[in-house]
Amino acid sequence: MLRVDLDDEFIGAFRMRFEKQTFTKERINLDYNDFDQCRFIECELVFNAVGSVGFTRNSVDGCRWTFEGPAAATASFMKALYGMGADGRKVVLTTLRNIVPDLKIQD
Question: Per-residue pLDDT for 107 more than 70?
């Protein structure tokens, strides 16, 4: 189960729930949506990090993940930190190890 809970106090925000649906070759905005037991085939899955996401018991086949808005800014910042030298690399690698504890990366 994947659940990302962000501040949902966005004016006009709503949550759509999708259950047991198949999406093929579509661009799917994950923010403010809840997907349960869905199938994604060759889709573009877009995460902006502006709204909560529910992603439970889904299958993903040949999809591309895209990070936009604040999510893209976070990824760019982490990339810049990594490029700043030993201290920046340590921050990024520590963060990755917190996400994936069994990740094998040399410092």
Answer: no
